[in-house]
């Protein structure tokens, strides 16, 4: 369910790595280097175990190499254990660029800007929901709009829309959606600085003005979960997690606005390349220099898209709390954390012993800050940043903790989900919606969906094994296990 925040997926061609695995150099049990060659400016690296490598699409290797050829890239072009093919960049791709010599790529951020996960922890145990999960699923399904083109009850004027694009979740809280305390547990404290609403097209704004507080479709979801297992007691205590606890995870992004920003600026970047004679190995890797006027404009629009996603998840949180308050008087839903996984951010990282400001693209990859990092709030800083990793519909999700090693090995990045094992078209051919629903029912998971076809596309069998992905990420020291969550109810578009 979580693995992709792009509208297009290539088909899977299992076995390519088995034939060409000799081109990779295994540096440890979960790290494979791609030697620098041809137009590559830096090496590539894929974090995965051998089985995950063998089952990856052949295009992942090609896309990692292509990204390594972009101007100003620093250290290496990276792919996480859940990597699969996307537009230009692989989904699960990470790349950092020098602010003076480097570029920014709309394809390196993705079309669902700031698609991400927010997890809420409750004061309820699974016993409190006994016999009431189907009714809870119905209530959430009724309250939170979802599906292609879905619209919500929040209607924004042009002025309010610009205020939202500048203010993010801070704006949402100021309008009565949620609590000020939530902001401390949101990436960027709920507001991405540097947003430029004036750089967002009117077409993009028109798509968003009625879509606030909606889940959307595809792999987006709202899931009621149970904390099934704790792996790290100290980190779990800091995060407020305990066995048997009920939690809620929300996975969505910037909806139509983010997609339109990506579409608008990808075309502008291609036009810019045509005028200036710049070439690149994949038309989806069109880019602009970070220091250029076009780069500045895209950054401003993209940051506005980040704020739209943060505000959207904040409004949905308010709606979820309303449903729980009606059904379970006295219930409390505290925000554990909210982190996006389709972004480009200016961050300081150590490179060859020197602190450098870099623009880090994470496309289908989650930030993973280690313990004590100054960007983390006091209440959880000692445990490291919560890394929220969603599974597929019907399988576990995980709360991991960021590590200091992730900062040195992957620009503080880790996996974000299970990762697709087959394309959406393949999934529709393989899985019948009715069968998927029946299987979920047998597992005791209440599923509510607007689109029957989407159940086939999001069937658990269409994804990699989440346990294997998380295991590889943890063995690669990109994150550390804290808790496993199992689904109780899932709301889909």
List low-confidence stretches.
1-19
**CATH top level label:** Alpha Beta
Number of H/I helices:
16
CATH superfamily: tRNA-splicing ligase RtcB
Number of domains: 1
Task: Identify the CATH architecture.
Answer: Alpha-Beta Complex
The geometry reads as: globular
Radius of gyration, in Å, reads 21 Å
User: How much of the sequence is in beta strands?
Assistant: 25-35%
Structural class: alpha+beta
Oligomer: single chain
From the 3D structure, determine the CATH topology.
tRNA-splicing ligase RtcB
Question: Roughly how much helix do the residues carry, as a percent range?
Answer: 25-40%
- The total beta strand count reads 19
Mean pLDDT: 93
C-alpha end-to-end distance: 11 Å
Could you give a short account of the major beta sheet? 8 strands, mixed
